Amino acid sequence: MLRNLFRRRLRTALTVLGVAVGILAFTVMGGMAEKFNRIIQGGEAYFLNRIAIRSTGGLVRLNLLFPNDIAIVRGTPGVKAVETHIMLPLDETAGFELAPRFLVGIETDQFHQLQQWAPPAATLHLKAGRWWAPKERGVAVLGAAIARKMRLDVGDTLRARDGRFRVVGVLKETLSLPDGWAIVDQADVRELMFEGSTMLKSLGLNEFYTNAYAVVDPAQGEAVTTEMALRLRKGFLLHSPQQLITAARQASTLLNTAILGAGAVAVLVGALAVINTMFVAVGERTREIGIKKAIGAKRLDILREFLIESTVIGLLGGALGIAMGAGLITLINGWTAGQGTPVFLLTPRLVTGAMAFAVLLGVTAGVIPAFRAASVDPVRALREM
Amino acid sequence: MSFWRRLGWGGTGDLLDEGIDHAEYSRLDGRWTDGAAGGSGGNRLAGLIGQPLVRTEGLTKRYPPNVTALAEAALTIDRGEFLAIMGRSGSGKSTLLHLLGCLDRPTAGSVWLDGVEVTRLPERHLPPFRLQKIGFVFQAHNLVPSLTALENVALPLRYARPYPADRFDRARSALAAVGLADRLYHRPTELSGGQQQRVAIARALVNNPALVLADEPTGALDSRTAAELLALLRHLCRERGQTFVIVTHDPVVGQTCDRVIEMVDGHILA
Q: Which residues of B have a CB under 8 Å from any CB of A?
């Protein structure tokens, strides 16, 4: 019975293509959303037990945190550990990137201790090379994306902001923010910033941080955040774990809604094409249906034949659409990987979802035409010679 | 099981001697035949011998607002008859054929077929009933274009439940019986008009139905091919003991038949 599909090759091909284009759009949009979702998930895992602290500035504060601020953070009851970063955009000309590139100064002597507080999803792992020795100067461990984009490997030299760092390690891909980080000892970044800023020099400020994270028990997150805010002076921005996670979830929901919307449009367009094709097929085969009924086909037999036909159209369209989508994603990813980060992520659940969408489309679009076919009156059909 | 053979009405033995002999059939047996004919296989046959295959009473079909296509038709067709229904177009002969074939419902009156009052069967029982009891041959474009001759002939068996495993063997025998053993894998467009009609006849026979209804089977054929086809039908009727009812407006066809029923304006003349 599937031969009917091949009887009208061009029409079937065009309909399948219609479904395929819809599914292609769905796959590509979905691939982008999946990538964003992964980045957000990575951040969510990292911030699950952390309060993020930043300075909002004031004339003299320069958006920096100073040792006495850190001491207050550390002294707040409920804080188990404090991680400090000095983050500097790697190059100021960088445009929009999914994982913006930063030179990140950490306390290399505290790193392994602090890693213990990170949830498994946010733990960093080496792909090649080694970590820094405690307080080792002039060496960098690179995130996967930065290494790829700048074509750097263990033993190469990273030039960043007038500084030169020997690459000693490259991280495994996290699909999250650390992919864009070049992680070095804090003293190195502090020195670069100090040398580059007349303001800092004139004020003689050589002990500072840009970000601090207080590790807390997630259950106490809100309470500790409130207490910490009271203890710090004005001019600080604190994000409790809940706030960060809520923000992440909102972004996630927004993206998923957008992709579902795109999916709905794809389904609608594809479904209309299938409905149209199936109606034409029913009209064209009215006599054939009449004969089949005369020789003993039940309503259900006819219904099934047409439903199978439209389902196969959905199936073919889905397979083709996913194949084209995967091809396009691979192509664009290959191109953007050279620029830093791949933009799309093709996950098994996306492929499964797209295929399910396509099949569902075929079935639902076939229902009305199939019912019309099933209710063809054999006497009337046979009279139309 | 071929009760035709058991009754001594011929049958070639190697050809289509298995009717639709599955569960549905035995269900038919108990449920759809009336009391006199009911009971187990042997009794049922005994009860049916001597009964006409088809009987109609007061069969009427009206179309709104006031067209009477068929009026009070009373008709009896015996087993093994080769019968023509003749009349001009619009005389109601196709309507009668559709009613006999359980394709249409009468406005009034009844049809008994093989002891079953089909006009009282619920709608959902009609397709399986047609599948078992009736074979159809139409004027032209009888075949499903996307299927080969063999698949077209096997088509009715595809709708049988349970699915007969030997449906292609049966279809092959049926095609052999109409002389098309060498055209099994041809598509309808690759066959001549006469060959297409012979495929349609093979399809009508594949179930070994009691009644074969043909609506202008020679209408689209030239006179020589038509004569050949008619001879084939005649031969099959004699050979297999099945009952053939042929609707036609061609007097030549009428002359070949055992009996001719004339129709004028929805009335049976004689």
A: 94, 98, 101, 103-104, 124, 127-128, 130-132, 135-136, 138-147, 155-156, 159-160, 203-204, 207, 215
